[in-house]
Amino acid sequence: MHIALTAVTALYGGVFVVSGTGQLTGRGPLRTPAAACGFSPAACQGIGVLELLGGAGLLTASYLTVAGAVAAAGLFLLTAAAFLYHDGQEDRGPRLWAPAVTAAVMLCVAVALPLTGVG
């Protein structure tokens, strides 16, 4: 269980760090997923900061269990909000199911980290 949980937190941590960095450094219109959805540059940068911090928190989960659990809970809220946004926009396909799957995984990680005592 510990190996699987560590692998999932490392994988998603890396994905969110890369995604957050891309949101922060994206230049020009429609270069980031949030910009393509019509968010302002400031909102895109805010989302990028949240993704970057959450990803960094997940990457530290094997050393700091509480930080990893808090990061996973924050990313759950962020991805749940993304799901609600895309559902309200009547998006279908990956734009709808990707945040839903990620939110479910982050909820499981947020619950599993303190229970397994990884760290």
TrEMBL record:
Its main location: membrane. It is a multi-pass membrane protein. It comes from the Bacteria. The chain crosses the membrane at residues 61-84, 96-115. Keywords: Membrane, Transmembrane, Transmembrane helix. The keyword Coiled coil does not apply. It is found in: Membrane. The keyword Magnesium does not apply. This is DoxX family protein.
